[in-house]
């Protein structure tokens, strides 16, 4: 019987390679993707999870009643949790707080205990996910530390299975293999096997800005200090033993924005829903391809599914908050707001020589709470009802006094073609915006902007 298995573990591997037809239409090169979310746990990490557990069992490091503990960005934890569920082990996973809620929830669904630690700390910090995992190993009876970053079973499994699998699928047609590195096991194991089969195959590391691996490959030391980034599961702020630079020919750094936008582009153009680390590797592959002098076959490893990132990569609000999508304020102009207003009343103004009573009557008749004030035909400031009401109640202001000493210089002129972000900045500083020329001026307030944005939201829903 074909594709019939005794348990879920047996279904790991034999994932497809799919040609990417639309993502780089003008390139002379052909891009292929190794789609690892076809593994039962949803990622490439299923491969090393079964290897780590099986090899530990052979060495007697795992036995009935053991607890598997691991520091993970999610996918290795999912693979280990799946295999542990079949084998009857308990699991504890320590994750940095940048990891998506979806990954945490799935791990808990497998029955794992999940411990969350801060992201922005050094690896040696006792609060880091690596340090916390090691401490849990010390204090937990019958604990086994999977240790994916330094466990040689990781790259060995890729050398023995993933590499041969790729060679059997695409073989000598392959010119370039591109992958990210978190633990380093995938690119190191696959890269070594492919190099043995064909020496001139190029193995290219895709590395996010903020990781130290690019520097280590080129300079054998860290030149740019590590910093936080949003892509999960790739890049490092320390050097894992499983990163084997000797099999890598080149490295390409990729920024967060490019990775997250490509994540969406892959779905819309290729129908392939993968995570940002997959998209990051593809961005790196496209950039690297510009160096190639002849048409080449480029294989990119896509580690996992995009469904674990619904709250991030596929959430418009999260994408805007992180600067990966333009704000609605950047997408609309002042003239759009003006055109949306149901009525355009003539601008009610006052002169510095008018009395308090005259201005109060103007505001009352027009149903307004503020107006610009002129002196000799030039706007000199703004006056609102609060400037008049409180002094009148306290008796410190006489109805027949001129308003000249009450005027505030809180007026700013904006142009119709300006975007609403610059308008918003001025309004947040307390300014009242005027748009237009001389006698055709119109006033824009915070309420006008709020009403316009509210209308936009209703239309988008």
Strand arrangement in the largest pleated sheet = 1-2-10-7-8-9
Number of helices: 16
Which percent bin holds the helix content? 25-40%
Within the CATH hierarchy, at the fold level, what is the topology of the largest domain?
Rossmann fold
> What structural category characterises the helix and strand content?
alpha/beta
Q: What is the mean predicted local confidence, pLDDT?
A: 90
CATH class of the largest domain: Alpha Beta
Largest sheet: 6 strands, mixed
CATH architecture of the largest domain: 3-Layer(aba) Sandwich
How many strand segments? 16
Work out the count of structural domains.
Answer: 3
Poorly predicted spans: none
Beta-strand residue fraction: 15-25%
CA(first)-CA(last) distance: 49 Å
What integer value in Å does the Rg equal?
31 Å
Global morphology: elongated
């Amino acid at each position: 019987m074909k594709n019939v298995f005794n348990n879920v573990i047996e279904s790991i591997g034999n994932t497809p390679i799919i040609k990417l037809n639309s993502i780089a239409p003008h390139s002379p090169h052909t891009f292929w993707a190794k789609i690892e979310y076809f593994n039962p746990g949803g990622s490439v990490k299923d491969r090393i999870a079964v290897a780590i557990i099986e090899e530990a069992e052979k060495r007697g490091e795992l036995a009935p009643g053991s607890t598997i503990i691991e520091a993970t960005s999610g996918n290795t934890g999912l693979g280990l949790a799946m295999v542990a569920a079949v084998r009857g082990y308990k699991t504890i996973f320590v994750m940095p707080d940048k990891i998506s809620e979806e990954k945490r929830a799935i791990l808990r669904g497998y029955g794992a205990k999940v411990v969350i630690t801060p992201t922005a700390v050094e690896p040696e910090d006792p609060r880091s996910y690596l340090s916390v995992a090691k401490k849990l190993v010390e204090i937990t009876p019958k604990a086994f530390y999977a240790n994916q970053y330094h466990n040689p079973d990781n790259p060995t499994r890729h050398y023995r299975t993933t590499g041969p699998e790729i060679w059997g699928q695409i073989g000598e047609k392959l010119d370039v293999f591109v992958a990210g590195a978190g633990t380093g096991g995938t690119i190191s194991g696959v890269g070594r096997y492919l190099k043995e089969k064909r020496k001139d195959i190029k193995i290219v590391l895709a590395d996010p800005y903020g990781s130290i691996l690019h520097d280590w490959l080129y300079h054998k030391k860290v030149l740019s200090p590590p910093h936080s980034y949003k892509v999960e599961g790739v890049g490092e702020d320390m050097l894992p033993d499983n990163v084997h630079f000797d099999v890598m020919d080149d490295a390409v750094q990729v920024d967060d924005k490019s990775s997250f936008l490509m994540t969406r582009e892959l779905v819309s153009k290729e129908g392939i829903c993968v995570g940002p680390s997959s998209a990051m590797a593809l961005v790196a592959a496209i950039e690297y391809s510009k160096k190639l002098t002849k048409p080449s076959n480029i294989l990119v490893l896509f580690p996992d599914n995009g469904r674990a990132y619904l709250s991030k990569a596929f959430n418009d609000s999260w994408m805007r908050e992180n600067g990966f999508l333009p704000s609605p304020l950047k997408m609309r102009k002042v003239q759009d707001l003006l055109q949306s207003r149901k009525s355009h009343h003539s601008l009610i103004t006052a002169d510095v020589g008018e009395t308090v009573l005259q201005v109060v009557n103007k505001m009352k008749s027009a149903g307004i709470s503020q107006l610009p004030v002129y002196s000799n035909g030039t706007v000199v400031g703004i006056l609102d009802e609060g400037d008049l009401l409180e002094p009148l109640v306290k008796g410190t202001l006489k109805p027949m006094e001129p308003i000249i000493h009450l005027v505030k210089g809180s007026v700013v002129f904006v142009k119709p073609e300006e975007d609403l972000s610059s308008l918003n900045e001025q309004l947040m500083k307390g300014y009242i915006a005027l748009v237009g020329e001389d006698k055709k001026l119109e006033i824009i307030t915070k309420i006008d902007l709020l009403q316009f944005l509210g209308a936009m939201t209703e239309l988008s829903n």
